[in-house]
Amino acid sequence: MKTITIAILMLFSVSVFAQTNTELKKHFEAYYTQMKKQGDKQGVINAMTHLDVLEPSVARKDTLAYIYLSEGQYMQALNTIGVEKNATDSDMNVEVKALALKNLNQIEMALEHFEVLYQRAPNAYLAYEMADMKIQTNDLVGARLNIDYAMANVTDDMKRAFYEKQQPYETSMKAALMYLKGLLTFTENKSTNMDAALKLMNDALAIDPNFNLAKISREALEAQKAQRAKQAAAEKKG
Question: In the record, which residues are listed under signal peptide (predicted)?
Fold first, then answer.
């Protein structure tokens, strides 16, 4: 009799828990809908976190990580989905890892995930980002391959955003690639490639005269060139 009573109580507890779980799920689904309607990103994050606890889902985790990323909460995004490279990761998952790691200045780790995205669906935008990071990590051969691909596949309507000014701005992707190629050319050989790099900066500015980063880079190269000429003249005179 005691065994039967315990079994009945256990079945009742499971039933109550299932009912409570279902009610909580409905509540947070409604809460999620309302937060989304109000444009409350933190509310959306809270709702999705509760839903994932109640009913774990890979797709929900990926979406939650993407929202964290869009809010600039990079560590939270990575804490949600991890940093490991998995063949089964969705495109969204890989993109979140790539961008979050890049924004945390973990360039080499970010590149691993950018490479996955590039293998799945190569495009000029990805190629630009990868070339930029490869210059930073001194993979100059890889950077040139990415730039060559991007320049062969860029179209006139493509734009690229820059953030070095207080007010972000966009420029032509073709101009951006000319600038990046100039930076790469100079990095490859700072002694002999000054003029070639300057020409590429001028080519970028011919496409977009308001391209601020190309202006800054050209000015820096011109200053270095003038300094070298001054030193050479002084050595010749001496």
Answer: 1-18
